[in-house]
Write a structure and sequence with these properties.
With 127 residues, the chain is mostly helical. It is built from 4 helices and no strands.
Length: 127
């Protein structure tokens, strides 16, 4: 059976991993915003199409947010496991995952104009 010292080290490692995942998630969102803004400005300057550039901006930025949210959910899961989950911790984790999953679905619908599972059905019919 592992000693308390080993468990403390394991918890510290898991907490560090959770923080690392959070940093990666936030960095993806921030960098995605910067890149999307750059591409938007370039499209406006080169092509002068504000409407199409705006649609592309929303799509690019939405994809960055979706990817960032995935890392943030992973961080929440790892962080909860590291602490030694209580019923309250698991309830908070469940609520966070639910909210972030809802946001992911809403962003997917906003970006593509259809439910996430509809894209797979359409792709499957063409085969």
């Amino acid at each position: 059976m592992p000693s308390m010292n080993n468990l403390e080290v394991l918890n510290q490692v898991l907490q560090s991993i959770a923080v690392g995942l959070e940093v990666v998630g936030v960095a993806i969102i921030v960098l995605g915003a910067i890149i999307a803004i750059g591409l938007f400005l370039r499209a406006i300057i080169k092509e002068g199409f504000l409407e199409e550039g705006f649609r592309r901006f929303r799509s690019d930025f939405g994809k960055a947010i979706l990817l960032g949210l995935e890392f943030l959910v992973a961080s929440d899961i790892v962080g909860t496991v590291a602490v030694g989950p209580t019923v309250q911790d698991l309830s908070v984790l469940g609520l966070l995952v639910f909210i972030r999953t809802f946001l992911s679905f809403a962003l997917e619908v906003e970006i593509t104009g259809r439910w996430p599972w509809k894209g797979y059905e359409i792709a499957g019919k063409g085969r």
